[in-house]
Specification:
By secondary structure, the protein is α/β, with parallel strands linked by helices. It has 10 helices and 10 strands. It has a single domain, classed as LigB-like (Protocatechuate 4,5-dioxygenase, Chain B), CATH 3.40.830. A hairpin with a 4-residue loop joins strand 9 and strand 10. It is globular, with a radius of gyration of 17 Å. 53% of the residues are buried. Bound molecules: fe (ii) ion.
């Protein structure tokens, strides 16, 4: 069929784990936008959701770190974190192994992607799913971009990974949705946790909305680290989504919530 839906969202663990500490006037509109993204995703009747994330040393470690990986399991489980800490109970998430294999084979035509038949979802995937598919009834194919352990894949390769995912989605009979999830500026697990560079975030999402490839790729990692923290490296997921959809983006929600450590963001992009 083709790519039927493309969106982006935040995934910080505080979104669920520190829910009660947030101002309800900020929290509830964000939750509503998150759930609406899920409603709109399901309206496109996808056979599977490719969820492009940036996991945090839950499955992939510095002994053998893939730049890109795609899941190929019958099912997944998560969260890997303490459910009480994250505010999300342990669950199983159906996979789509046959579709995964065909997507991986096509992505491999241009990207040397790793694959995994075992994958435990950390907050980076389970927080979005908690809002998008709360019944965990839509098959998920996790895809990961290493945004944590340098040397990191260059931004232009993240865009090319998105292009490969698009080509793969267009090559199969199934209806494929892609949602990418990452932080914009944030400084997780550092003394600066909670700091947000709203101006930088706004400028990045403006570049993303225009799907302006040159502007999206116009950062060095040194600049990202200086202005957006080590968490800012996760813009690779949003850049990959732009490479996949290549249409006009709409930022539906953009609200810094310091107790959640990020500018809480929801966006959709036309599939061009
Ligand atoms: Fe993250």
């Amino acid at each position: 069929m083709s790519l039927v839906f493309a969106g982006v969202c935040s995934h910080a663990p505080g979104i669920t784990g520190r829910a009660q500490l947030a101002d309800a006037a900020l929290r509830e509109p964000f939750y509503a936008a998150f759930r609406k993204l899920g409603d709109d995703l399901r309206k496109t009747r996808p056979d599977a959701l490719v969820l492009v994330g940036a996991e945090h040393f839950a499955n992939f470690f510095m002994d053998n770190m893939p730049a890109y990986a795609i899941g190929m399991a019958d099912e997944y489980e998560g969260p890997i974190e303490d459910p009480a800490w994250l505010g999300i109970g342990k669950t199983r998430i159906p996979g789509a192994p046959g579709l995964s294999q065909r997507l991986i084979a096509e992505v491999m035509q241009s990207v040397d992607v790793a694959f995994a038949e075992e994958w435990k979802f950390d907050h980076g995937l389970i927080v979005p799913l908690h809002f998008l598919t709360p019944e965990y009834d839509l098959p998920v194919i996790p895809a990961n971009i290493n945004c944590q352990g340098p040397p990191l894949t260059p931004l232009h390769r993240a865009f090319a990974f998105g292009e490969a995912l698009r080509r793969a989605a267009d090559s199969v009979a199934e209806r494929v949705a892609i949602i990418a999830t990452g932080g914009i500026s944030h400084w997780p697990a550092t003394p600066d946790s909670g700091k947000i560079n709203e101006a930088w975030d706004r400028d990045f999402m403006d570049r993303w909305s225009r799907c302006d490839k040159d502007a999206l790729l116009g950062y060095t990692d040194a600049e990202i680290y200086r202005d957006a923290g080590q968490g800012g490296f996760e813009i690779r997921t949003f850049i990959a989504l732009a490479g996949a959809a290549r249409g006009a983006g709409t930022v539906r929600h953009f609200q810094p919530i310091p107790i959640f450590s990020v500018t809480c963001t929801i966006g959709v992009m036309e599939v061009a």
